[in-house]
Structures are given as C-alpha cells and as structure tokens.
C-alpha cells in the first residue's frame, strides 16, 4: 500500500492526477513513439490540434500558408499535426496514391472520411474494394465522352454568368454574392 500513499485522497485530486498522467503519457507517445514521430515539424503541432486551430480559426485560414513556410524551415516532408504529414515533393505521388496499374490496395483514412458525415457515400467508403465497386457505378458519368457531351451546356452557362457579371459591373450600386452566383451557375 505504500506505493499508493502519495495519491491524493479526494476524488478531485485523483481526477487531476489521472488527467495530468493522461496528458503527459499522450505527449510522450506523440513525440517519441507515434508512427510519424520521426518526421520534422513543430513539436507543438505534434502535441496538439490547437496549433492547427490557432492558424485556421484565430488567424482566419492561415494554416495552409503556414504549411508552406514550414516546408521552407523543415524540408519537403513535415508533420503538421498529431496524425498527418504534408509532402511538397511531387515525386512522392506514385508512392502515396495507389493506382489500379500498381496493383496496390490502400484503404482510406477513417478520420478523413468521417468529416463529411456521409458514411454510406462512395467518397466516405474506407475499404479499398468497396470504394472501387461504388466508384465503378459512377465512372461512366465522368468518362471523357460524357464530359465532352456536356461541354456545350457548360460553355453556355459560363457565358450566361459572365454576361450577368458584366451587367452588374456597369451598375453603380450593384454587388454580386459570388456563392449565390456559383450556386445558380451549377443548378441551372
């Protein structure tokens, strides 16, 4: 029992010791034992998602630009948070992305596909073979022939939208809410 004598007797004290231990053990794991622990990058980014939150929310979307600066400081492959690496070297594309020609199968990262809240959708399918079957059902809609067939309609819509922009340009008090304009462009 002498081993447990140093622990506080109150439940609040015990909770604080447990929380502190959890944070310390998690930090040690993230910095030293994580599968991506050996990659360069800011240590604070390796410890917590608050680092990314700061650049994305507090500095209003600056994380993407900050990553470019980090590449200048740390090199072509950097750790940008607890779970992710960012690579700025195009020669790694074939290594990272499996193709049907390579014969490699790669499942998608569940953390990434959950963010859209569409677990049954093709994009959110994690397992390689299931995703491939769902993608095959839609592939004819994205073939070169299908896209070329839609080209005249797309051209007409672009011309229509540009004409609306020109009309607003000549008016003094006119303004365009671009997200509404683009939504109208895509919905007919």
Overall 3D geometry?
extended
**Biggest sheet character:** 2 strands, antiparallel
Instruction: Average the pLDDT over all residues and give the rounded result.
Output: 86
Order of strands across the main sheet? 1-2
Order of helices and strands: HHHHEEHHHHH
The whole-angstrom Rg is 25 Å
Describe the protein's architecture and organization.
The protein is mostly helical and 188 residues long. It has nine helices and two strands; from the N terminus they run H-H-H-H-E-E-H-H-H-H-H. Helix content is 56%, strand content 3%. The chain has helices spanning 11-33, 43-47, 50-58, 63-74, 93-96, 110-114, 128-138, 144-169, 178-187, and strands at 77-79, 85-87. A two-stranded antiparallel ribbon has the order 1-2. Strand 1 (77-79) and strand 2 form a beta hairpin.
Key phrases:
188 residues; mainly alpha; two-stranded antiparallel ribbon; 2 strands; 56% helix; extended
Question: What topology emerges from the helices and strands here?
Answer:
Layout lengths: L10 H23 L9 H5 L2 H9 L4 H12 L2 E3 L5 E3 L5 H4 L13 H5 L13 H11 L5 H26 L8 H10 L1
Antiparallel strand pairs: 1-2
